[in-house]
Design brief:
- The complex is a heterodimer of chains A (529) and B (141).
- Chain A has 529 residues and is α/β, with parallel strands linked by helices.
- Chain A has helices spanning 16-28, 55-58, 67-71, 120-124, 134-148, 173-186, 226-229, 231-236, 282-292, 362-367, 374-384, 427-446, 509-528; strands spanning 2-3, 7-12, 34-37, 84-88, 150-151, 166-167, 191-192, 240-242, 246-253, 256-263, 269-279, 312-318, 334-336, 352-356, 388-395, 404-411, 417-422, 451-455, 492-494.
- Chain A has one domain: FAD/NAD(P)-binding domain.
- In chain A, strands 1, 2, 3, 8, 9, 10, 11 and 19 form an 8-stranded mixed beta sheet that branches. In chain A, strands 7-13-14-15-12-18 form a 6-stranded antiparallel beta sheet, with helices on one face.
- Chain B is mainly alpha-helical and 141 residues long.
- In chain B, helix 3 (46-58) crosses helix 6.
- The chains are: A alpha/beta (529), B mainly alpha (141).
- Bound molecules: flavin-adenine dinucleotide (FAD) and iron/sulfur cluster.
C-alpha cells in the first residue's frame, strides 16, 4: 500500500454534501490542501438518454434510479454502484454514484424544511431537536440557492421570507393549474415549486425546455447538479478530485482519524493521510464506510440507525380532458403545505406534503397498470395517458432506531462489506399516508376526477437517505455534534444527508447543501480562526 | 421456442385495439421481430421461465398457437396466477419494445421524437390563481 503525502482535509464522496463542502471550504480557507475521493466518474452528458429513441426503456436499465436495477443490466454503467440488500425494506433505496452524487438523477425540487422541523421534540415531544435552528441555517440555504439557481416565486406564507433571488417558476402546466383550482376550491394552501432548474438561459446552462425525464440526467444543464454548480469553483480553488477511488476505511488511532485508505482506478490500495477526514457518501454510503471502519464506541450507538426515507403514496385522478402527461420537469409543479404543521386532533403526529408532479413516460405508465397486459390494459392506458393527474403524499418519517443500515457477512466487489437496509413503515407514517391519500382524493374529486387510483405505498421511492449519522448534543442518540464532528473522533466529520436528526416532510436537497456549507464554514473558522 | 409460439404469446399480451388511430398488435408493432431477448436462454431468466410455463399450460407450443383467443388468455392467466414475478418480467420485456414503437406512440397521441432537443411547450403560469393563497396569514411555526 502506497502512503501518499499528507493533506489537510480528505473528503469521501463528491455528491451533494461533499461537493458543497469542498467548494465552500476551499473558498474560505484557500491555504488548505483538500483532496476528494469519489467512487464514480464524471457523468457523460452526451450519453444521457433524453436524445435517444429508446429513452423510455433506458429508465429501466443502465439509467434506472435504483442502483440494484442498474447492476442487473449487462452493460457498462454510468454510475459506480454497489449492491444493497433491500429485501427487508418495503421502500427501495435510490441514488447515483459518481461526481455530483444523487443530484445527477434527482428531480431538483428544493423546498426548505420549516422552522418547526428543527424543534419537533420541543414543540410536540417527538423525534429530536436539531442542534441549531432554521434561522441559523438560513444564510446557508440562501448560499446554496444562489449556487444552484432557483426558479420559483417569493412570498409563500408556509415559509419565512426567502431572500435569495429567484428566476420565474417552471410552468405549472395544465395539471398544475387544474390542481391549483382544486386547492383553491377547498381553501387549501398551494404554491409553485422551488426548482433548482434554470428557466432562463445562463452562461453554459440553458433554460429548461420541459423535456421531462430529469431522473436520467439533464443533458442541457438546465437542472442544477453538484458536478456543474459546485465542482468548477472547487477545482478552481485547488481542490484535487480523484475519481474512481473507493474509500475502504477511515483509519482511527488513539481516538483521532489519521486518514483514509482507498482503492484507486487501477485497483491499487493507497493511504491518504489527513488532518481532517470528512465523509459524505450519503445515508447508506457513509454508514457503510464508518461501520466498516469500526470507528469506535460512542459512534456505534446511533451509527447506521434512525434511517429515514419519507414514505410516499400516490393518488392519481383521471379526467376527461387532455392534460400534460410527461411534459415538464417531473418533480416540479406545485405543492400544498396545508397539512404540513402538526395539529392536534388529527390521527397522527407531525404532517405531510401534497406534491403535484408530472406524469411518467408512456412505457412507465403502461408498466404500472393492473393488469398490464391484454385488452383491459390497452383500455386503461387510453383512459389514463395524458388524462391523469398525480398527487404524491410525502409523509414525515420520524426517526426510529430499528430502521437502519447494517453490514452483512459478504464482501462486495468494491472491497467494502455488503450492506443491508432494514426498514419498517411506522404506524404513524401509515396514518399520515392514509390521511394524505384521503385529502388528495378529496381535491381530485373536487375538480371532477371520474376515477381515482390510490397507491398506498410506492416502493421505488427511496430517494431520500437520511439520519444514519445524525447530529445532536447527546452522544447516546447521535453520531456528530452540531458542527458535523463525530463525538468519539472529533477530527472525523460527516457532511451529507446522514446528519438529519429529523426529516420533515419535504425533499432534503436544499437542507443537505446548506448543512454542508455550514459545516465547511464552521471548520474554516476553527482552523483559520 | 418457435417464432410462431413467441408471436402468439406477444399478441395475447398485446392484442391492439380499434381506437382512433388503432393500437397495433404486438407483432405488428415489431415486438417479436426482435426475438433475441425473448429467446434468451440465460439460466433462470425469469421471462423464459414464464414462457415455458405458458407452453406447458397449453399442452405444448403448437397447442398454444392453435388455441383461440379465449384459450390463449386462459393459459396466460393461469401462469400469471402461478408465478407472478416471472410473468411480470415477461410482460415488462414485451412492453418495452411495444411502447417505443413508432406506430404505438402515434396511436397513443404521443410524438415519435425523443424528449430532446425539442422539449415541450407549456403555457406560462397565471399568477392570478395564487391570489387567495397570498391573502393568507403566515402558516409556519
Ligand atoms: C431519483 C432521485 C430523485 C431525487 N429527487 C430529489 C428532489 O427532487 N429534491 C431533493 O431535494 N432531493 C432529491 N433526491 C435526493 C437527493 O438527490 C439526495 O438527498 C442528495 O443528493 C444526497 O446528498 P448526499 O451528499 O447525502 O449524497 P449523494 O449526493 O448521494 O452523494 C454521495 C456520494 O458519495 C460517493 N461515495 C459513497 N461511498 C463512497 C466511498 N466508499 N468512496 C468514495 N465515494 C463514495 C457516491 O458515489 C456519491 O457520489 C433525489 C434522489 C434520487 C436518487
Ligand atoms: S425537464 Fe428541464 S430540467 Fe428536466 S431534464 Fe428536461 S430540460 Fe432538464
Amino acid at each position: 500500500m502506497a502512503r501518499l503525502d499528507p493533506v489537510d482535509v480528505v473528503v469521501v464522496g463528491a455528491g451533494l454534501g461533499g461537493s458543497a463542502f469542498c467548494a465552500r471550504l476551499s473558498e474560505r480557507a484557500p491555504q488548505l490542501r483538500i483532496v476528494c475521493l469519489e467512487r464514480g466518474d464524471w457523468v457523460d452528458r452526451s450519453a444521457m438518454p433524453a436524445y435517444r429513441r429508446d429513452w423510455q426503456s433506458a429508465a429501466l436499465g443502465a439509467w434506472a434510479t435504483s442502483p440494484n436495477a442498474r447492476l442487473s443490466v449487462d452493460a457498462r454503467l454510468p454510475s459506480a454502484d454497489y449492491p444493497i440488500d433491500d429485501s427487508a425494506s418495503p421502500i427501495k433505496p435510490l441514488m447515483w454514484n459518481g461526481v455530483g452524487g444523487s443530484t445527477i438523477n434527482w428531480a431538483a425540487h428544493v423546498p426548505r424544511l420549516h422552522p418547526s422541523d428543527f424543534r419537533t421534540k420541543a414543540l410536540g415531544g417527538v423525534g429530536d431537536d436539531w442542534p441549531f435552528s432554521y434561522f441559523d441555517l438560513e444564510p446557508y440555504y440562501d448560499l446554496n440557492d444562489t449556487a444552484m439557481g432557483i426558479a420559483g416565486l417569493a412570498g409563500d406564507p408556509a415559509y419565512p421570507p426567502k431572500r435569495s433571488p429567484r428566476m420565474p417558476p417552471v410552468p405549472i402546466g395544465r395539471m398544475g393549474e387544474k390542481a391549483a383550482r382544486g386547492f383553491n376550491a377547498l381553501g387549501w394552501h398551494w404554491w409553485p415549486a422551488d426548482a433548482a432548474i434554470s428557466t432562463v438561459d445562463r452562461e453554459d446552462r440553458r433554460a429548461c425546455n420541459n423535456a421531462g425525464p430529469c431522473l436520467m440526467g439533464c443533458p442541457i444543464q438546465a437542472k442544477a447538479s453538484a458536478d456543474i454548480v459546485y465542482w468548477p469553483a472547487a477545482i478552481k480553488n485547488g481542490v484535487k478530485l480523484r475519481t474512481r477511488c473507493v474509500a475502504q476505511q477511515v483509519i482511527v488511532q488513539g481516538g483521532r482519524a489519521i486518514g483514509v485508505t482507498y482503492r484507486d482506478a487501477t485497483g491499487a490500495t493507497q493511504e491518504q493521510p489527513a488532518a481532517f477526514t470528512v465523509v459524505a457518501g450519503n445515508g447508506i454510503g457513509t454508514a457503510r464506510l464508518l461501520l466498516a471502519s469500526n470507528v469506535g464506541r460512542g459512534v456505534d450507538g446511533a451509527l447506521g440507525r434512525y434511517l429515514m426515507f419519507h414514505p410516499i403514496a400516490y393518488a392519481r385522478g383521471m379526467f376527461k380532458e387532455e392534460l400534460d402527461g410527461p411534459r415538464g420537469p417531473i418533480g416540479n409543479c406545485i405543492y400544498s403545505h396545508e397539512f404540513y404543521e402538526h395539529q392536534s386532533g388529527r390521527p397522527f403526529i407531525r404532517g405531510l406534503q401534497l406534491q403535484v408532479t408530472r406524469e411518467n413516460s408512456l412505457l412507465a405508465q403502461a408498466a404500472r397498470l393492473e393488469p398490464a397486459w391484454g385488452a383491459a390494459a390497452h383500455r386503461l392506458l387510453r383512459e389514463e395517458f395524458r388524462h391523469s393527474l398525480p398527487v404524491m403524499v410525502v409523509a414525515e418519517d420520524l426517526p426510529e432506531a430499528g430502521n437502519r443500515v447494517v453490514l452483512t457477512e459478504g464482501v462486495a466487489a468494491d472491497g467494502l462489506p455488503d450492506v443491508r437496509v432494514e426498514y419498517t413503515v411506522s404506524e404513524n407514517s401509515r396514518r399520515i399516508l392514509d390521511f394524505g391519500l384521503d385529502r388528495a382524493e378529496e381535491m381530485l374529486r373536487a375538480i371532477g376526477a371520474h376515477r381515482v387510483v390510490r397507491v398506498p405505498l410506492a416502493p421505488v421511492t427511496g430517494w431520500h437517505l437520511l439520519g444514519t449519522a445524525r447530529m445532536g448534543d447527546d452522544p447516546a442518540r447521535s453520531v456528530t455534534n452540531a458542527r458535523g464532528r463525530c463525538h468519539a473522533v472529533p477530527n472525523l466529520l460527516v457532511a451529507d444527508g446522514s446528519l438529519f436528526p429529523t426529516a420533515g416532510a419535504v425533499n432534503p436537497g436544499a437542507t443537505i447543501g446548506a448543512l454542508a456549507l455550514k459545516i465547511a464554514d464552521d471548520l474554516a473558522r476553527e482552523v483559520i480562526g | 421456442m418457435t417464432p410462431a409460439f413467441l408471436s402468439a404469446v406477444v399478441d395475447t399480451l398485446l392484442p391492439g385495439d380499434q381506437g382512433v388511430p388503432p393500437l397495433p398488435t404486438g407483432t405488428a408493432a415489431g415486438v417479436a421481430a426482435r426475438p433475441e431477448p425473448l429467446l434468451s436462454h440465460r439460466d433462470g431468466a425469469e421471462h423464459d421461465v414464464a414462457l415455458r410455463a405458458i407452453a406447458r399450460a397449453a399442452g405444448g407450443e403448437d397447442s398454444f398457437v392453435r388455441a383461440d383467443a379465449a384459450g390463449r388468455i386462459a393459459c396466460v392467466r393461469l401462469v400469471e396466477a402461478e408465478m407472478r414475478e416471472p410473468f411480470r418480467a415477461l410482460v415488462a420485456l414485451v412492453l418495452q419494445d411495444y411502447y417505443e414503437a413508432e406506430s404505438v406512440l402515434v396511436a397513443m397521441g404521443w410524438r415519435v421524437e425523443p424528449p430532446q432537443p425539442a422539449g415541450h411547450p407549456l403555457p406560462a403560469f397565471d399568477e392570478a390563481l395564487l391570489e387567495p393563497v397570498k391573502r393568507r396569514d403566515r402558516m409556519w411555526r
